[in-house]
Amino acid sequence: MSCDCLSTVPKNIIANRKAQGIEIVGTPHIEFKNYFKGDFYYDAVAIDVRYSVTYLKRNGELGTKKVKRPLIPRYCPFCGTKYIPDDRG
Is residue 78, in this structure, part of any structural domain at all? Predict the structure, then answer.
């Protein structure tokens, strides 16, 4: 139930930039992970979201904590293929 965007999109990005006269060193990276939901594993594109959380420490000072969480869309952000089946029938 997965698509082939992870192999085609980086190549298309490079080809498009070369056509514009822009040279790219390396390959654009898109992360692809297996996730578990319910009774099955599914493949999904994961986009890491980084943000900071400010909180009050016990001594009364403000602290900052950096957090990184994967954003796992239900659909491929490139072609729209659905990754996560509905729980309902």
Answer: no
DSSP assignment of 28-84 equals ---EEEEEEETTEEEEEEEEEEEEEEEEE-TTS-EEEEEEEEEE--SB-TTT--B-S
Residue 17 pLDDT: 74
- Domain count for the chain, please give it: 1
Question: Does the structure show a pLDDT above 60 at 37?
Answer: yes
Write the DSSP symbol of residue 21: T
* CB count in 10 Å sphere of residue 22: 9
* Across 24-38, average pLDDT: 63
In a domain, 77, yes or no: no
| Alpha-carbon torsion angle 69, 71, 74, 76, nearest 10 | -140
Instruction: Answer positive or negative: Cα dihedral of 12, 32, 73, 27.
Output: negative
Residue 87 placed within a domain? no
Average pLDDT over residues 72-76: 73
